[in-house]
Write a structure and sequence with these properties.
It holds the Pfam family LigD_Prim-Pol. It is an enzyme of class 6 (ligase). This is Non-homologous end-joining DNA ligase. Strand 3 and strand 4 form a beta hairpin. With about 300 residues, the protein is α+β, with helices and mostly antiparallel strands. The chain contains seven helices and 16 strands. Helices cover about 25% and strands about 25% of the residues.
């Protein structure tokens, strides 16, 4: 029998709590749910008001993985959804996570949380810029850190403050909070920045996605600024054999990274980091005081 748990006044069926989801460490679904319950205060501000996409991996990373934007079958009526304009289906709605109950309901599906760079109240108007630094082997996150340092300085020259997190996979994500700006304009700026990075660091950076160009270099993926694209949210677990978390990092950690293992953070690491640093990406959710303006 599936246990029914009351969470913040909502009754939620939490299933298969002993099922191993991350096989490298034997991490169970129950441990996954406990993780999300303990990081809720840090995670929710990064999800709230944004329509979510889910990468579902209910049988772990070795099972079927599928990406969904539509509310899954059986979504409770109390889970909020928001209209999301899409050319192929103008009536589309997506899930909104706005509290502990909806977070636990979504986490029970075993998902990665992915968000756009805009909020539901203003579709295609971004309040942040994102750059996804993806290393092509034999390059690693160490090379990503070198590129991140250059991009940080370049963004600062335009009056934009950059913040970093691990992707939870191989690379880094850089964010800069913005005054509300049309996604098309942010996309154009981000692409120009990636092109400039390649021109300045040709031995290290590529701005085009073609895999043939990427061995030994860092792909500066600017495409996630498109209104139609999403990025793995801060603090989301990733669909990997280890319970890797997309984790905010300090610039000191970026500058000091000489070994890829230094920027691998697993589920048990996040609580102590939050107690030590708080949410290093809090400026992304702070609104106008922290927001920059594109030149």
């Amino acid at each position: 029998m599936t246990p029914i748990t009351e969470v913040a006044g909502r009754r939620i069926a939490l299933s298969n709590l002993e099922k191993v989801i991350h096989p490298a460490t034997g991490t169970t679904k129950g441990e996954l749910l406990h993780y999300y319950a303990t990081v809720v205060d840090a995670l929710l501000p990064h999800l709230r008001d944004r329509p979510l996409s889910f990468l579902r991996y209910p049988d772990g990373p070795d099972g079927q993985l599928f990406f969904t934007k539509n509310p899954p079958p059986g979504t409770p009526g109390w889970v909020k959804t928001a209209p999301v304009p899409r050319s192929e289906d103008p009536g589309t709605r997506q899930v909104m996570v706005d509290g502990l109950a909806s977070l636990m309901w979504a986490a029970n599906l075993v998902v990665e949380f992915h968000t756009p760079q805009w909020r539901a109240a203003a579709p295609a108007v971004a309040d942040r810029l994102v750059l996804d630094l993806d290393p092509g082997a034999p390059a690693t996150v160490v090379e990503c850190c070198r590129v991140a340092a250059w991009l940080r300085r370049r963004l600062a020259a335009d009056g934009l403050e950059a913040y970093a997190k691990t992707s939870g996979a191989k690379g880094l994500h850089l964010y800069a909070p913005l005054e509300p700006t049309p996604s098309e304009r942010v996309s154009a700026y981000a692409r120009a920045l990636a092109v400039e990075a390649e021109a300045e660091l040709p031995e290290l950076v590529v701005h085009r996605m073609a895999k043939a160009l990427r061995p030994g270099k860092v792909f500066v993926d600017h495409s996630q600024n498109s209104a139609a694209k999403t990025t793995a949210a801060p603090y989301t677990l990733r669909a990997r054999r280890e319970p890797a978390v997309s984790t905010p990092v300090t610039w000191e950690e970026v500058a000091g990274c000489g070994d890829p293992a230094q920027l691998v953070f697993l589920l048990p690491d996040i609580g102590p980091r939050l107690r030590r640093y708080g949410d290093l990406l809090a400026p992304l959710t702070a609104g106008p005081p922290a927001a920059g303006r594109l030149p």
